[in-house]
Amino acid sequence: MLLMKRLTITLTHNLCIRQEYVMTPPIRARILWIYGTILFLFLGASAAVTPLYPLYHAQWHASLPMLQAAFAVYALTLLLALLCLGSLSDYLGRRPVIWLAIAVETVAMLQFAVAANIGDVICGRALQGLATGIATSALSAGLQDAHRERGGLISGMVPMGSMAALALGSAILVRFAPDPLNFVFWLLTVGMVMSAGVVFAIPETVSRIPGALASLRPRIHVPLAARSAMRRIAPANIAVWALAGLLLSLGPAIARIASHDNGGVLLGGAVVAVVMAPALVAMIVHLAGPGTLLLRRGAVAVLAGLPLVLVGLHIVSLTVFLVGAAIAGAGLGLTVQGALRTIVPLAQSHERAGLAASYFVMSYLAFSAPAFLAGFAVRACGLRATTDAYVALLLILTALTLRGLGRDGTIDACPSPAR
Q1: Where is 237: in which H helix or E strand?
Q2: What is the pTM of this model?
Q3: How many CA atoms lie within 13 A of 162 on its CB side?
Q4: Of 45, 117, 165, 189, which has the most beta carbons under 10 Å away?
């Protein structure tokens, strides 16, 4: 009986892999466009809240610990979703899991749209983190089902472009649109409802297999073939996502000091855009090239940009701060591109959601945990001292990473045919 069950699972896996080969180019293109757009909405929506924090503080008198709680609960539920539900689409299929994520995200957007206090926002952020965690692994795996190379590129580039666009767009709506606390979330709700319908226009890319309930156990699942590469890209990846956490959490506060408090409501969105837009440009410019080379160039860009961030803070120069943030943002894009190029080809179709979830767990932990701790350090030590210590640690980690990459130049994955 056990032998028959294993044979059934093996045959189903083989059917999943074969299904990828028979997809026609138009269907592949449609999947890439639709899943890429939905991923854009999910990850952009997470950044759309950032410009609203000053308004929550001004209109609802939300304290810094409460605003930190809104940041922390999003990261916590996202990580729990990745740990428990990250592999679910490998068993149930991509589309059912994506529909589940869209449903939860729609409820979260409605929660934001009718929020009357910071407690409502925290509840919305908890739901948003859960939905985003469910969606990111399923959508990333679906993109790679359609085309392994292009899908990996889109999975890496969409977070940068979406966070830049929606953070800045949200800031503009806050400044000029009616009902500044809620309007952007009504728009996102409409976008989510439309996304649910569009998913019907594409076929399922993997077949359902047994084991869905067992996959809900919290775990990190890195395929055996990808474990060595994942360990080697981890230091560089952790460094740049911790950098993103610094610039997206403390960045607006640093920018307000550097601008002598003249930035207004647009400043928070502008800081996110200044970090993420160069990251996206760097990824587009480096569509080709070995992963190791991109990791090295990313580390060099981080080492060049971070000191300028500190200089901008200490000499009170917004221009210097933004230039440093942009250079460091380019380093973020190069490193993410190099990391994904290294690990993506090493997973089979039934392992892709698990690998994507593991990568995002590592990235979001690095993004959220140091930034959350830094928020408490600001109250105890002040913004300048906290930023100095944070940047010094990042510079040390990045320098050690660059040294390690120079010593071992063999971490690139073996090339495999794109599917």
Answers
A1: helix 227-249
A2: 0.79
A3: 20
A4: 45
